[in-house]
């Protein structure tokens, strides 16, 4: 199960939620991503040098979609499946 629950302080940090969500599955995800998407994830999560052009938000969005698809395929092969639940909690309304 992947989960993301950023603290109030983390809500201002770019990509903190993405790191929380994908960190446990990165070893399975990164090798299966196309090079541009892999680089986008690595730069967004400060996993590499960060040298080169800035990350395009569209490429990072595609990388997240590809990552979820890869996890779904891995789940099918392991018979666990994948379910995606998105919720939004506003600070102070927990």
Radius of gyration: 14 Å
Sequence of secondary-structure elements: HHHH
Give the number of helices.
Answer: 4
- What characteristic shape results from the CA principal axes? globular
Low-confidence parts lasting 5 or more residues at pLDDT below 50? none
What share of the residues lie within helices? 40-55%
Number of strands: 0
- The chain-level structural class is mainly alpha
Strand content: under 5%
**Between the first and last Cα atoms, what is the distance in angstroms?**
21 Å
Look at the structure and give the mean pLDDT.
79
- Major sheet: size, sense and barrel closure? none
Characterize the structure shown.
- The chain has 94 residues and is an all-alpha fold.
- Helices cover 46% and strands 0% of the residues.
- The longest helix has 22 residues.
- The two termini are 21 Å apart.
Quick recap of the structure?
With 94 residues, the protein is mainly α. The chain has helices at 16-22, 26-29, 35-44, 57-78.
């Amino acid at each position: 199960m992947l989960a993301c629950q950023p603290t109030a302080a983390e809500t201002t940090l770019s990509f903190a939620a993405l790191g929380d969500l994908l960190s446990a599955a990165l070893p399975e995800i990164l090798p299966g991503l196309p090079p541009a998407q892999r680089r986008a994830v690595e730069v967004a999560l400060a996993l590499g040098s960060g040298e080169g052009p800035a990350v395009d938000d569209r490429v990072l969005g595609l990388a997240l979609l590809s990552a979820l698809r890869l996890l779904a395929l891995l789940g099918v092969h392991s018979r666990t499946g994948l379910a995606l639940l998105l919720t939004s909690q506003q600070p102070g309304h927990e």
